[in-house]
Amino acid sequence: MNRLPPLNAMNAFARVAQKGSYAEAAKVLNVTPAAVSQQVRRLEQFLETKLLQKYGRGVLLTDDGQILSRAILDGLAHIEQGVAKLTRRAHSKTVSVTTSPSFATHWLLPRISKFQVVHPEISIQLDLTAEARSMERPDFDLAIRYCKFEDLPPGTEPVKTVTLNVLCPGRLLPPKPWTPDVLSHLPWLQELGVSEISGWFRRRGLEHCLPDRVSEMPGNLIIEALKRGDAVAYTVCDWVSEELESGALHELWPEREKGAYYLLTNSTSEDEAISIFLQWLNHEADL
Q1: End-to-end CA distance of the chain
Q2: pLDDT reported for residue 1
Q3: pLDDT over threshold 60, residue 76
Q4: Fewer CB within 10 Å, N side or C side of the chain?
């Protein structure tokens, strides 16, 4: 089948699926129940399958009806999100950015004020999560993601390169030698939604030494917990350079690893405010 069913018929069916009756769907669509029923029959004829069956005064979805209703309702929700986003932009200039709490706290937020001084007409909306949000959704214009430096997508310039290591507060520092077995018995912290600790051990062939105690929290809170001396963490050295220099924190492994934060854009986002923010972001990355 190379063409879609009539949109009015799909909309009528979706409302019946939501409300469970022709009468209630008719109220939403501001038409008669007979008109809704006619549209549903038209859709069933087009698809050559039964979508609804009578149940008391209402209707139930058939198996095919359930499949189609989920698809249509998901599509309508996606359209509504896009329309809402365009409506917001008609009244304000907003750039929505999704990134990790750690990167936002230690790199992006300290710089945002400079952008807002130059461009007070543009608002920056931040979604802080370690989760890799889908850029196919209309909710976000830009994403700043983390990866190992060697895993940077081809042709991508990093916004920020960083180094990482296992860091330990002075009060928890174990006696040398700092063997993997010693490290595994320390209390560890890990950012929510990632598996950095197990990855670090596995890259060294040390699966048998995975830590006994791992607590998870947002990345920016991990840095604060490290500074307080709560636990050990595999994290970005750049965010705690002063503490490493002063000896408040110690690196427990001889080699650091290299990582990168890089930029993804929503292919559907074409907006002057986004272009301005991207230019500023690239300028800051070059400093």
Answers
A1: 54
A2: 46
A3: yes
A4: C
